[in-house]
User: Fold Arylsulfatase from Pontiella desulfatans.
Amino acid sequence: MNSKTFSSGLAMLLLTGAVLAEKRPNFLFILADDQSPFDLKVYDSDSPLDTPVIDSLAAEGLVFDGSYHMGAFIGGVCRPSRHMIMTGRTVWRLPHVRPPKKGSPPRKHPGTPLANETPVTPFDAENDSLPAVFNKAGYDTMRTCKNGNSYEAANELFTVRHDATKRGGPDPEGSGWHARQVLDYLDAREKSKDADPFLIYFGFSHPHDIRDGKSELLRKYGATNHRDKKSLPKLSPENPAPDLQVNYLPAHPFHHGHPGLRDEEKVSGVWKNRDEATIRNELGREYACSENIDIQIGRVLEKLEAMGELDNTYIIYTADHGIAIGRHGLTGKQNLYEHTWRVPFIVKGPGVKKGRALGNIYLLDISKTLFDLAGIESPELNEGISFKPVLEGKKEAVRDVLYGVYCGGTKPGMRCVKKGDWKLIKYDVLDGKVRETQLFNLAENPDELIKEHHDPDVVAFTGNQPKPNQLNLADDPKYADKLAEMEALLLSEQKRLDDPYRLWNQPDG
Ligand SMILES: [Ca+2]
Assistant:
């Protein structure tokens, strides 16, 4: 061995030693199913929902005030949302999604191409998905989540997988079951002295309906698992159910455009009812399920702490999308108001600054960011933007403009765009019968109140007297320039993101 070979060999040895000494971080990715950020005290200090574990994650980590899912082209909003999480692809470039040709038959599922159709995404998305990339990098990957409405080909790639839909109250039938899978996995790692870094995808089946809560938590939130379609739930005078939200309405002022939509008409305990008792009871059920999720996360964090892994683990808490449950007279997840388009997003981990940041992130940025934090190269076709600079406090936001879509019902559906304090929502549904435009200044009107919220009967329900300027500003001539600017911004986002549709007042794409 000459001296040059010896010294480069020594350098190599030292380098390997340095890499080994610097333990790679773990990831615990927690995903609630259907949760509005405004359910949580972190986002609405008036919320009666107790989530001490999430609150402490927020206190020790970074809370995002601008985190969104990009949208959906089917009623099952979960499905494209979860495809975006797995692949980092934007909504119209998900695997097997392409603009439908005029006259083509309706697509049953986005994961199923029509006859003779090639996917827009020109690669096997699952081979570049979150678990695939972490597997290749030498991580151990584990997943528990609900079944269905997800990206099955990617889900299969987790080396350990325990999926089942668990929407009951008692632990073996509900969120406790998902926590059990993670705890058993951690136990097994401990026994086998497994020292590889891990990615755990800790998904819940709640607070998605049916929101069957634990009896003690239902009692706490004044709710019952109401099942009788012929009666309304009885509110308990001793344990009052949660108050109606400030943006509750007994009805949305125009049709949302998806006739027969399950989440607006068929959810057990709610159906088509929008009365006070139904909505407050359902909110109580939502909160009972959400507090139980918090308890279950606490069990897993305790275990990580006992194993000495907590400080080397990034914990990401979010939901696949928000949910209305009475806000704006809607109950589902198929709208683009902030309560439903936005998601809760909290991150705690090594080097993550404490506090709040805007972020302006989509769920589709998660995979790119986790690769970045792990020092893994991201697949070329991942369209996400790493928000690691936001986590480190070096940047406030990763983008200026946000786009949202819902077109799972009649086409072209709903679109929205947000920039700074301004947000535009457009509805073009029911074959042109509904063509509506909403323009909100979210700094002055964060709850997106409209003229119906000013109705004295509604004020009597909500206890919230809106300020005179808390309105849809689209028809106010004072804001004509702002409206035109936002309309142009929406169209440019539609073009940039391959949105196959155009609205009534847009030039034909
Ligand atoms: Ca969902």
